[in-house]
Design a protein that fits this description.
- This protein has 31 helices and seven strands.
- It has about 675 residues and is mainly alpha-helical.
- The strands form two sheets. Strands 2-3-4-1-5 form a five-stranded parallel β-sheet, sandwiched between helices. It has a two-stranded antiparallel sheet with strand order 6-7.
- Helix 24 packs antiparallel against helix 25.
- The longest helix is centred in the middle third of the chain and has 21 residues.
- The protein is globular.
- The two termini are about 20 Å apart.
Length: about 675
C-alpha cells in the first residue's frame, strides 16, 4: 500500500466496525467512513487495510493538507505512482490509466474538498469498472451507491484499553497492572472523555507530569459529564475541544508558541525545518529542539525517526491560535523563505555527492514547497519564479511534470520579475514541456533561451545560461530526430570552454547531450569514450543523474556492437541510480535496455518478464515505449529472438508475469 505514514499510534478494538467495513467494501464500490475529528477514521481505515491481506493494489491519498482541490488529481496520481509524461490533464491521465485496473483508492480526510472529491471520484469510477473507493470524512461524499459507515467513539472497555496502553508508553513509572483504585480513576477519565481516541491519547500523555487522580480532578473541572447533547454541540465534540484546549493550557508558553507556529507546515517536517521556520527572539533557535521534544512527549506532535507530523485536529487548533496571535502571515513568510532557501541549496547541491539526498528531501517536502509557492505567488512573485525554476528540474525527474508546469507558468505570468529570472524559468519550462511531449512549444522556448543567452555577457552565470540553452536545444533536436543539429549545437557551446565537464551542472548536462548526439550520428567509438569518462567522473563525485544516462549510452552502444553482457551490466547500474532518484521514466528506459540485453544474451524468459514489467511502467508514465530512436530496432529484434526461442504462448506467459510484478 502506497501512503504517507502519519505517525505511529496505538490501535485497539474496533472489531465490529472493521467487520462492518469489510462487508460494506464487499458490497459497494464507494464506502465513506464518517465521524468527528479525533474519532480515529484514518487509523481505522489503515487497520482495515493492514489486516485485509487480499493482494489487491491499494493507493492511499492523504488530502488533509491540500488547501483546495486544484492539486487533488495530482495527489491521487502520486498515490498510485502515476508519473504521467504527457500533456493531458491529471484527471484524464488517471482515467486512462485506471481503465483496465481494479485497485482500491483510499481518499483520506476529504471533508474540506467534498465537491472536488465527489466529481473526481465519479469520473474515476466511471472510467474504471474495477475501481473501489474508501473515503474518510466528517461528512458523506454524496455519490450514488455510497455506503456510509459512521464511526462512533470507543466503548467503555476499548477506551480504557487504549488509555492504559498509551499510559504505559508515556508513563512507565505507573504500576502495571493498575490497582483497582487507579482503574476506577481511569474509567472515570475515559467516561468524561467520551471514548474519543485522540482525547484519550492527549490526556494519557499528561500522566508523565500528573498523577491519574490529578488528571481526573482537572477533567472534572473542565468537562461536565452531565452536559446535555444537542445536534449542534454533541458532548464528544465538547470533550475533544476541551481536551485539546486543556492540553494547550498545560503546555509551557514556549510549547504553546511552537504548537501554533508548526501549524503552517503542510506535511512532515524535521527539527531543522522547525528551527528555521518557528524560531525568533521569542523562541530562540537553540530552544526549538527541546520544545519540540516536549510536544512529542505530550502527544501534540507525532515522531517517526527524524520526521515529525501534527495530526489534523491538533494542527487546526494551533492554526486558530496562530491567527489569534496575529502572526500567521509572519510565520508563513518565514516558511516560504525557508523553502526558497531549500530549493536554492538543492540546486547548488545537484552536482555533488548529496544529489540523491536532495532528490529525496525535495520529494519528502513536496507539500510544503507547493504551500510556499502558493504563498509567494501571492506575496512575492519574483521569489516564487526563482523557487519554481530551481525545483522544476528535480520535479521533472520525479514525475511531477504537471505541477512543475503549472507553477512555472503561474510565476511567469505574474508581474514583477526580472529578465534573468524569466530566462531561467523559461529554460526549466522547456525541459518540462519536452518530457510531456509538447515538442514544438519546447523548441520555441529553446530557441528563445539560445537567443537570450547569445546577447548576454561573459561572466560565469552567462556561460551557464549558454550551456543550458544548448542542452535544451540539443535535446529538442534529438527528440525531433535531428541528431546532427543536436551535435552541432552542443559542440559549438562546448568549443573552447576551459576546465572539465564537472565544473558545473550546466557544463555536465551539455556534455551529456553531446554524447547522445554522438551515438545518434553513428560515432560510437567516440560516444563510448565520452560516456565512459562521464560515468567515471560522476561515480567519483557520487553523482547519479548524469551517471545513469552515461550508463544508458554505454548499454545502448554495447547492444549496437552485439555485446549483451556489458549492456546488461550498464542497464542494471542505470536502474540502481534511477531507483535512488525516484525516476519512473528513467527506470522504464533502463528496463527496456535490460530486456533487450537479456534477450541478446540468450535468456528469453527473463527478457520477457522484464519486458512485461517495462510495459507496466511505461503505462504509468503515460507513454508507449520511448527512448532514443536507435533503441527501437534493437528492442524489436531482441523481442523477436526471445519469442522465437520460447514460442508465443510461453513468451506471453512470462511477459504477463513480469507485468504483474514478477520480473526480478
Amino acid at each position: 500500500m502506497r501512503e504517507e505514514r502519519r505517525g505511529a499510534g496505538v490501535f485497539v478494538g474496533r472489531g465490529r466496525e472493521l467487520a462492518g467495513l469489510r462487508t460494506a467494501l464487499a458490497g459497494s464500490r464507494v464506502v465513506t467512513v464518517v465521524g468527528p475529528g479525533g474519532v480515529g477514521k484514518s487509523r481505522t481505515a489503515r487497520q482495515l487495510l493492514e489486516g485485509a491481506g487480499s493482494g489487491r493494489e491499494v493507493a492511499w491519498a492523504e488530502l488533509s493538507r491540500l488547501p483546495d482541490d486544484s492539486r487533488l488529481a495530482d495527489a491521487v496520481a502520486a498515490a498510485f505512482g502515476l508519473a504521467d509524461h504527457t500533456a493531458r490533464e491529471p484527471a484524464e491521465a488517471l482515467c486512462a490509466w485506471l481503465a483496465d485496473r481494479g485497485p482500491l483508492l483510499v481518499l483520506d480526510s476529504c471533508e474540506h474538498l467534498v465537491p472536488g472529491v465527489r466529481a473526481l471520484a465519479a469520473d474515476l469510477l466511471a472510467a474504471s469498472p474495477g475501481l473501489s473507493v474508501l473515503a474518510t470524512s466528517r461528512e458523506p461524499l454524496g455519490l450514488p451507491g455510497e455506503d456510509v459507515v459512521e464511526l462512533a467513539p470507543l466503548g467503555p472497555d476499548e477506551a480504557l484499553e487504549l488509555f492504559l496502553a498509551r499510559a504505559a508508553t508515556v508513563a512507565p513509572h505507573l504500576p502495571r497492572p493498575w490497582p483497582p483504585s487507579l482503574l476506577r480513576v481511569a474509567r472515570d477519565i475515559c467516561r468524561r472523555l467520551q471514548g474519543v481516541p485522540l482525547t484519550l491519547e492527549l490526556a494519557a500523555a499528561q500522566l508523565n507530569h500528573h498523577t491519574p487522580e490529578e488528571l481526573a480532578a482537572r477533567l472534572r473541572r473542565h468537562i461536565d459529564p452531565l452536559t446535555s447533547q444537542t445536534p449542534r454541540d454533541p458532548r464528544r465534540h465538547q470533550s475533544l475541544r476541551t481536551t485539546i484546549g486543556w492540553s494547550h493550557e498545560l503546555c509551557e508558553p514556549a510549547e504553546r508558541l511552537l504548537w501554533a507556529r508548526l501549524s503552517v507546515f503542510a506535511g512532515p517536517f524535521d527539527a531543522d525545518d522547525a528551527q528555521a521556520v518557528c524560531s525568533d527572539e521569542a523562541l530562540p533557535p537553540a530552544r526549538v529542539r527541546a520544545v519540540l521534544d516536549a510536544l512529542v512527549a505530550k502527544s501534540v506532535v507525532r515522531r517517526a525517526g527524524r520526521e515529525h507530523l501534527v495530526l489534523d485536529t491538533v494542527r487546526e487548533y494551533g492554526g486558530t491560535w496562530l491567527g489569534r496571535l496575529g502572526r500567521r502571515e509572519a510565520v508563513r513568510r518565514r516558511h516560504a523563505a525557508h523553502f526558497h532557501r531549500l530549493a536554492r541549496l538543492a540546486e547548488e547541491g545537484w552536482l555533488s555527492s548529496g544529489q540523491d539526498d536532495w532528490y529525496q528531501r525535495l520529494r519528502a517536502r513536496h507539500r510544503d514547497l507547493c504551500a510556499a509557492l502558493d504563498f509567494m505567488l501571492r506575496t512575492d512573485p519574483a521569489r516564487a519564479l526563482d523557487t519554481a525554476a530551481r525545483v522544476a528540474f528535480f520535479w521533472a525527474c520525479c514525475g511531477r511534470l504537471n505541477e512543475a508546469q503549472t507553477y512555472l507558468q503561474r510565476a511567469l505570468n505574474a508581474p514583477g520579475t526580472q529578465d534573468r529570472d524569466l530566462a531561467r524559468a523559461r529554460w526549466a519550462l522547456g525541459v518540462v514541456l519536452l518530457l510531456r511531449g509538447e515538442h514544438e512549444h519546447a523548441h520555441r522556448l529553446a530557441l528563445a533561451c539560445q537567443a537570450a543567452a547569445a546577447v548576454s555577457g561573459d561572466g560565469p552565470g552567462d556561460r551557464e545560461r549558454r550551456l543550458d540553452a544548448a542542452y535544451l536545444l540539443g535535446l529538442s533536436h534529438l527528440m525531433a530526430g535531428r541528431p546532427l543539429a543536436a551535435r552541432i549545437v552542443t559542440e559549438n557551446a562546448l568549443d573552447g570552454l576551459p576546465g572539465t565537464p564537472f565544473d558545473s551542472a550546466a557544463t555536465l548536462r551539455c556534455h551529456l547531450a553531446r554524447t547522445f548526439a554522438l551515438t545518434a550520428t553513428g560515432l560510437h567509438h567516440q560516444a563510448r569514450a565520452t560516456a565512459g569518462a562521464l560515468r567515471e567522473g560522476c561515480a567519483a563525485l557520487g553523482e547519479y543523474w548524469t551517471r545513469s544516462y552515461a550508463d544508458y549510452q554505454l548499454a545502448l552502444i554495447s547492444l549496437i556492437e552485439d555485446r549483451p553482457a556489458p549492456a546488461a551490466e550498464h542497464a542494471r547500474s542505470m536502474l540502481a541510480a534511477k531507483h535512488r532518484l525516484g525516476d519512473s521514466f528513467g527506470t522504464a528506459l533502463g528496463l527496456d535496455l535490460l530486456a533487450a540485453a537479456l534477450a541478446a544474451d540468450g535468456d528469453p524468459v527473463r527478457a520477457a518478464r522484464t519486458s512485461g514489467a517495462c510495459q507496466t511502467l511505461w503505462q504509468s508514465v503515460g507513454h508507449p515505449q520511448r527512448g532514443t530512436p536507435e533503441l527501437a530496432p534493437l528492442r524489436a529484434e531482441c523481442e523477436r529472438r526471445a519469442r522465437a526461442r520460447l514460442g508465443d504462448d510461453a513468451y506471453e506467459a512470462a511477459f504477463q508475469e513480469g507485468a504483474r510484478g514478477g520480473w526480478a
